[in-house]
Design a protein that fits this description.
This protein has a 5-stranded antiparallel β-sheet, sandwiched between helices. It is of the alpha+beta class. The protein contains 12 helices and 10 strands. About 25% of the residues are buried. It has 3 domains: about 100 residues, Phosphorylase Kinase, domain 1, CATH 3.30.200; about 120 residues, Transferase(Phosphotransferase), domain 1 (Orthogonal Bundle), CATH 1.10.510; about 35 residues, no CATH class. The termini are far apart.
Length: about 325
């Protein structure tokens, strides 16, 4: 980056992009975040409200192009996202990405959280069904001549730098050595059998989901971490890790039959371990949210509370206490 480019005013650059694409400057331009490598503006314009990201780092152009490819590809499959209007680095000396601003609220605190998670799981299945080539950050969005990781192991070793990251965990005594070995073995074993790469959002959590007042998802945001990887393994390891147990069930029920097919397969060689056939739960018991119907049915039959409590979980708690005590 030249000295001239380093002294550029991000707000002036943002207005130049808006003039180029929309014909005039913003009525109001607000910088939402600012860092060494990324500036994010909200632009209130005569033609609407837009979000503009720009960066003095020339390498950010590839990141924006990757996001743009993923957003356009998933929109074609019915996944709601902001619309990308322009990505480039020719109008100004910095890379930039201009998008429509999505109206709504972050899904994290919405009261219909369970319904949102089921819907998010369904969108995750649509995203993961998009086939890609190569593993890692460089995949179908990149020009044909750009090198890609041909295998999962190449991604782990060369791009993710797995051994270096495990060494950091070991050096700071953050994870026992035995568990580090299990992590290494688990990740490496995913490449033991041929696995078709597919698109993964990479951070599919409620903080990156916008919903309307009724809880309907209006946009999935933040595609910066999207990768070509093994699904649903990669996707679910991030999407589920900070959810409560019932919320994990909601998400995976939304993901659909593909998830239940995945959990019945060997994670190394993808061998089919169990064949359940078609599973159709009884009416009134098809989702986690329907479980109170079971309690109501037992009460209707005249069961005592102590018996109902045992059926609904206390028997499991008793057995687990006996096993763990041993």
């Amino acid at each position: 980056m030249s000295d001239v480019e380093a002294k550029e005013d991000p707000a002036q650059l943002a207005n130049r992009v808006l003039e180029h694409h929309l014909g005039s400057r913003a009525r109001q331009l607000k910088e939402e975040t600012s860092g060494a490598s990324n500036h994010v503006f909200t632009a209130d314009h005569d033609r609407g409200v837009f979000v503009l990201r720009l960066s003095p780092d020339a390498d950010r152009l590839n990141a924006y192009l990757k996001e743009c490819w993923a957003i356009e590809r998933v929109r074609a499959e019915g996944v709601p996202t902001p619309e990308v209007l322009e990505v480039g680095a020719s109008v100004i000396p910095w890379p930039y990405m201009l998008m429509d601003r999505v109206t709504g609220q972050e899904a994290t605190g919405h009261p219909r959280r369970a319904d949102i998670l089921r819907s998010l799981g369904a969108h995750a299945a649509r995203i993961n069904a998009i086939a890609t080539t190569g593993f890692g950050d460089v995949f179908d969005w990149a020009p044909a001549g750009v090198a890609r990781n041909a295998t999962w192991r190449a991604f782990l070793i060369d791009e993710l730098e797995l051994e270096r990251k495990l060494a950091v965990l070991a050096a700071h005594d953050m994870v026992p050595e035995e568990q580090l070995g299990e992590i290494r073995e688990t990740l490496m074993s995913l490449g033991d059998a041929p696995r078709r790469p597919s698109l993964n959002h990479g951070d599919l959590r409620l903080k990156n989901v916008m919903v309307d007042e009724a809880g309907a998802i209006v946009a999935i945001l933040d595609w910066e971490k999207c990768v070509s990887g093994i699904a649903p393994d990669w996707e679910l390891s991030i999407a589920l890790h900070d959810l409560a147990v019932d919320e994990k069930d909601d998400f995976t029920q939304g993901y659909g039959p593909e998830f239940f097919d995945w959990i019945t397969r060997d994670k190394g060689y993808a061998r089919k371990l169990t064949e359940f056939g078609d599973i159709i739960n009884p009416a009134g018991m098809r989702e986690i949210k329907d479980y109170p119907n079971l309690t109501a049915a037992m009460e209707k039959r005249g069961w005592k509370e102590t018996r109902i409590r045992k059926v609904m979980g206390e028997n499991w708690v008793r057995v687990l206490k006996e096993v763990w005590r041993g």
